[in-house]
Design brief:
Chain A is α+β, with helices and mostly antiparallel strands. Chain A has 20 helices and 7 strands. Chain A has a 4-stranded antiparallel β-sheet. Chain B: Keywords: Coiled coil, Repeat, Transducer, WD repeat. Chain B: WD repeats lie at residues 51-92, 139-179, 180-221, 222-263, 273-307, 308-340.
Chain lengths: 472, 340
C-alpha cells in the first residue's frame, strides 16, 4: 500500500493483514512442541530467560517453511523490524543478525497491532519514567520530544508524573530479571512507534488520503442498477478455462524469443555492453529490419499494423493487388479516432470525398447497410462515426489480404533477408578461458544448455518442449 | 421486509447464479493445463543503473514508448524525465503541488502528466517551442485525489480517482468526456488494453472492473481479493487482467472465461503488493511489495522464480519497457533502479 487512509478504521483495514500474517508465524515459533528452542541468556550479571540467537531463528524458519536462507533472513528481518522480536544486545539496531546475537519475543501486550495508535500520553509517561529513574538518561531527541509534549499536554502533566512514579514503584517490587525484561520490551515498543530521527519509520503509511465522502448510497436505485448489471452478466458468453489457459501458454511460447528477460537479446544487452546496436537495429525505419521483428508481423494482424515499417511493407503488397485503399481508409479512420477534436469535421469530409462518395478516387467496398449507416452518421460527425465502416474493412483485410501477404514472396524475402545479429563478444582478459556473455538470458530455462561461449543460445531458436519429464 | 430488502436479496441471488455459471466453465486445473510447459529456472536480474536525483519518496514511474526514456514523480515536488542509459535527467519539472501520486508518459513522447492530492491531472508539454516545459492543461473536476492516469493519445487521457470514478478527458478542451462510475471504493490504479478500446481499474472495494471506452460502460467486474487492489495491468495479449492487492496476492482474471484463473501467493509473502508489470511474453510477472522486494512469478505455473532485493524502502512503482528489455523499479528510498 503506497497511500495511507485515515478513514475510520482505515488503518486497521490496510495494515492489519500483514500484521496478522506475521503474528501467525510468531505464534507458531512459540509453540511448546514444534516451536523454537529457547535458552537462558546472560546479560552482564543477570540471566534473561527464553532467549534465542539470530542463527536459531533463521534455521527454524528455513526448516518450518522449507525456504532458502535468503528468504528466511528476509522474513526474520521483517519480524524484527516490526517489533515482534527484539534484540537484547544493541537494542536500537533493529536488524536480525544471523549469528549468536540474542533475541527475545515481544510480549503481545506490546505488539504494534495491540496498542495502535501509540498514544501521546503513554509516550509522555514513558519518557517521564526514564527521566525520573536516572537523571540525564534521556537521549537528545527524547529530551526534545519530552519538552514538546510537556508544552502540548501541560494540563495533564500532573497525571503523567503521577503515573510514571506509580509504575516505577510497582516495577521496583519485581525481580531484577523481570524488571530488565519489561524495560527492554517497553523500549523496543517505543523504538518502533516513536523512532529516533534518521531511523526508518516502519509505520510510515505514506500520503494521508482524505476521508472519502463520495460513497455510493445503498438505496433502491443502486440495487436496481446492480440487478440489471447482474442480469446482463448472467447471460454473457463464457469460454472454458482450459482454452483460456492454453491461449496464454501459446502466447508466451510464441513470444518467448522476443522477450529479452526470458531469452536475452542480440547482439548484446545495451545495459551491459553500453552498446546501443540493439536499438539502432530496431528503429522505426531501418533499411533492413531484424528477423525477429519481421517474424512478429506474422503473429497477429495488430502486430503488423502497429509497426510502421510493417504497415509500409503491407501497403506495398496491397498496392500490387490494387487494394491499397483499404489500408489507407483504415489509417484515416484511426487518425480521426485518436486525433484532435477540432479537426474531426474536416477529416470526416476528406474521408468521404476520397473513399466513400460515389465515384471517389479510392472507393472502398463496404456493404450497403454499413454504408447507409455511415453516410447518415456523417451528417453529424463525431470521433467514432467511422467505426462500423472501419471495422468492416479491418476484418476484410485481416481475413483476406493479411494471410495472403504472409504467404507472399514479398514477405518471405523480407523474412529471409532479416538480420540475425551475432552476439558481440565481450572483451576479456587474455588469460580468461571462458568468455562472458554480453547478452545473457536472465531466466535460466531448464531445457537450455548451460552457458558455454559463443552462440549456443538465443539465435532465434524456439525453446523446445522437452519430453514430459520437464515437470513432475 | 420492505422493497429495498427484497431488491438486495434479488441482487445477491443473481450474484450467486453468476458464480455458479462461472464454475461450470472451470474445466481444468492449472497443473493439468500447464503440465507441458517448459520450466523456468531461477530468474536473476541485476541492477544495471541506479537513477539518483530525487530527494524524497518516489511514488510513480512510467516508461516512454521508445524504451530508453522514463518519467518519475516524487514527493519532493519534481517530475523527472530520465535517459535511463546515461542516467542523465532530460527534464526536471517542478510541480505546483508536491503531493503527487502518479505520472504518465504519452505514447507519442510529447507529453507527460501527473496528479495527486490536488485532485487535478496536470499535462506538461515536453516539446514546447522555446524548449521550456510548461503546463499545457490542468484537468480539474475530480472530487478526490488522483491515483493514476494513462494517455490514450496526445488528445485523450484517462484518470482514476479517490472519488471512486474514472474519467476520460479531452485534453485540448480540458473537459470531461466520459465519467465511469460504479466502484464503491477509491479507484487506485488503471491500465489500458493493447488495442486502446478498453481499460481496467482496480479499487478499494476489492474489485477490478473492465470498461468499454467507447460505450462508456462497465463490461465485467471481478472480485476475490480480500483487500484493496493497488495495482492492475493487462496480460500482453489483452485477454486477461492481472491485479495486485494489499492482501499480498496477485490474481489473473481471464476476460473470456469471465473469472479468476490463477492466484499468485506464498505464505512467506506477507506484505501487500504496490505495483506490478508483466514481461513482454507474459511468462513472467514482476510485483513490487511493501517489504522492499520485488517478487518474480512464473505466470503460467504460479510459482515464484526470483526476487529483486535492492531497495531500502518500499517499492512503490515498477514498469517493464515496451521492448521488454529492462524493468525499472522506483522506491520510497528515492532511487530508481534499472534491472535486467
Amino acid at each position: 500500500m503506497t497511500i495511507n487512509t485515515m478513514a475510520k478504521g482505515g488503518w486497521h483495514r490496510d495494515q492489519m493483514s500483514c500484521f496478522r500474517k506475521m503474528e501467525k508465524v510468531i505464534v507458531a515459533m512459540q509453540d511448546p512442541d514444534m516451536g523454537m528452542k529457547m535458552r537462558n541468556q546472560r546479560l552482564l550479571i543477570t540471566i534473561i530467560p527464553h532467549a534465542m540467537t539470530g542463527r536459531d531463528i533463521i534455521d527454524w524458519l528455513m526448516k518450518k517453511s522449507n525456504i532458502c536462507e535468503e528468504e528466511s533472513l528476509h522474513i526474520s528481518g521483517l519480524l524484527v523490524r516490526y517489533g515482534y522480536i527484539y534484540p537484547l544486545k544493541e537494542p536500537r539496531s533493529l536488524v536480525l543478525r544471523p549469528d549468536e546475537s540474542p533475541y527475545r519475543f515481544q510480549t503481545p501486550y506490546f505488539w504494534t497491532s495491540t496498542r495502535w495508535p501509540a498514544s501521546e500520553l503513554d509516550y509522555a509517561i514513558y519518557l517521564a519514567k526514564k527521566n525520573i529513574r536516572k537523571q540525564g538518561e534521556l537521549m537528545e531527541y527524547e529530551k526534545e520530544r519530552y519538552s514538546v509534549l510537556h508544552k502540548r499536554i501541560n494540563h495533564t502533566w500532573d497525571f503523567v508524573v503521577m503515573q510514571a512514579r506509580e509504575q516505577l514503584r510497582a516495577s521496583k517490587q519485581r525481580r531484577k530479571a523481570d524488571r530488565i525484561v519489561l524495560e527492554c520490551q517497553e523500549q523496543a515498543y517505543w523504538l518502533i512507534n516513536r523512532p529516533p530521527p534518521g531511523a526508518r519509520n516502519v509505520l510510515d503509511m505514506g500520503l494521508e488520503r482524505p476521508n472519502n465522502t463520495a460513497r455510493v448510497t445503498l438505496n433502491s436505485e443502486h440495487y436496481k442498477n446492480e440487478i440489471d448489471t447482474c442480469k446482463r452478466a448472467l447471460g454473457r458468453n463464457r469460454v472454458k478455462s482450459s482454452i483460456c489457459l492454453e491461449g496464454f501458454m501459446k502466447y508466451s511460447e510464441q513470444y518467448q524469443n522476443h522477450d529479452p528477460i526470458m531469452q536475452g537479446c542480440l547482439p548484446s544487452n545495451p545495459w551491459i555492453s553500453d552498446d546501443s546496436a540493439h536499438w539502432t537495429m530496431n528503429l522505426e525505419t531501418v533499411p533492413t529490419p531484424t528477423r525477429l521483428r519481421v517474424e512478429r508481423w506474422s503473429f497477429s494482424f495488430m502486430e503488423l499494423l502497429n509497426d510502421e515499417m510493417g504497415r509500409r511493407e503491407f501497403m506495398t503488397y496491397l498496392e500490387k493487388e490494387f487494394s491499397g485503399e483499404n489500408l489507407a481508409f483504415w489509417q484515416a479512420c484511426e487518425d480521426i479516432k485518436h486525433g484532435e477534436s477540432s479537426k474531426i469535421v474536416e477529416k470526416v469530409e476528406e474521408i468521404y470525398r476520397n473513399f466513400l462518395a460515389p465515384g471517389a478516387p479510392r472507393w472502398v467496398n463496404i456493404d450497403s447497410k454499413t454504408m447507409d449507416k455511415t453516410l447518415s452518421g456523417i451528417r453529424h460527425p463525431h470521433r467514432f462515426v467511422m467505426e462500423d465502416a472501419q471495422m468492416h474493412i479491418y476484418f476484410l483485410i485481416k481475413k483476406d489480404s493479411y494471410p495472403r501477404y504472409l504467404k507472399s514472396d514479398l514477405y518471405k524475402n523480407m523474412l529471409a533477408k532479416g538480420i540475425v545479429p551475432q552476439e558481440t563478444k565481450k572483451s576479456v582478459f587474455p588469460f580468461m578461458r571462458r568468455q562472458r556473455h554480453s547478452s545473457p538470458s536472465p531466466a535460466q530455462v531448464a531445457t537450455q544448455a548451460t552457458e558455454e561461449g559463443g552462440n549456443a543460445k538465443g539465435a532465434g531458436q524456439a525453446g523446445t518442449n522437452s519430453a514430459a519429464g520437464s515437470n513432475v | 421486509m420492505g422493497e429495498m430488502e427484497e431488491l438486495r436479496k434479488e441482487m445477491e441471488n443473481l450474484k450467486d447464479q453468476i458464480t455458479a455459471a462461472r464454475k461450470t466453465f472451470q474445466d481444468s486445473t492449472l497443473q493439468e493445463a500447464a503440465a507441458g510447459v517448459t520450466v523456468v529456472g531461477r530468474v536473476q536480474l541485476k541492477t544495471r543503473k541506479t537513477l539518483r536525483g530525487h530527494l524524497a519518496k518516489i511514488y510513480a514511474m512510467h516508461w516512454g514508448t521508445d524504451s530508453t526514456l522514463c518519467v518519475s514523480a516524487s514527493q519532493d515536488g519534481k517530475l523527472i524525465v530520465w535517459d535511463t542509459i546515461t542516467t542523465n535527467k532530460v527534464n526536471a519539472i517542478p510541480l505546483k503541488s508536491s503531493w503527487v501520486m502518479t505520472c504518465a508518459y504519452a505514447p507519442s513522447g510529447n507529453l507527460v502528466a501527473c496528479g495527486g492530492l490536488d485532485n487535478m491531472c496536470s499535462i506538461y508539454n515536453l516539446k514546447g517551442k522555446d524548449g521550456n516545459v510548461k503546463v499545457m492543461r490542468e484537468l480539474a473536476a475530480h472530487t478526490g485525489y488522483l491515483s493514476c492516469c494513462r494517455f490514450l493519445s496526445d488528445t485523450e487521457i484517462i484518470t482514476s480517482s479517490g472519488d471512486c470514478t474514472c474519467v476520460l478527458w479531452d485534453i485540448e478542451t480540458g473537459t470531461q468526456k466520459t465519467v465511469f462510475a460504479g466502484h464503491q471504493g477509491d479507484a487506485m490504479s488503471l491500465g489500458v488494453s493493447p488495442d486502446f478500446k478498453y481499460f481496467i481499474s482496480g479499487a478499494c472495494d476489492f474489485t477490478a472492473k473492465l470498461w468499454d471506452i467507447r460505450e462508456a460502460e462497465c463490461r465485467q467486474t471481478f472480485g476475490g481479493h480480500e483487500s484493496d487492489i493497488n495495482a492492475i495491468g493487462f496480460f500482453p495479449n489483452g485477454n486477461a487482467v492481472i491485479t495486485g492487492s494489499d492482501d499480498a496476492t496477485c490474481k489473473l482474471y481471464d476476460l473470456r472465461a469471465d473469472q479468476e484463473l490463477l492466484t499468485y501467493q506464498d505464505s512467506s509473502i506477507m506484505c501487500g503488493v504496490t505495483s506490478l508489470a508483466p514481461s513482454k511474453s507474459g511468462r513472467l510477472l514482476l510485483a513490487g511489495h511493501d517489504d522492499f522486494n520485488v517478487n518474480i512469478w512464473d505466470m503460467l505455473k504460479a510459482e515464484r522464480v526470483g526476487v529483486l532485493a535492492g531497495h531500502d524502502n518500499r517499492v512503490s512503482c515498477i514498469g517493464v519497457s515496451s521492448d521488454g528489455m529492462a524493468c525499472c523499479t522506483g522506491s520510497w528510498d528515492s532511487f530508481l533502479k534499472i534491472w535486467n
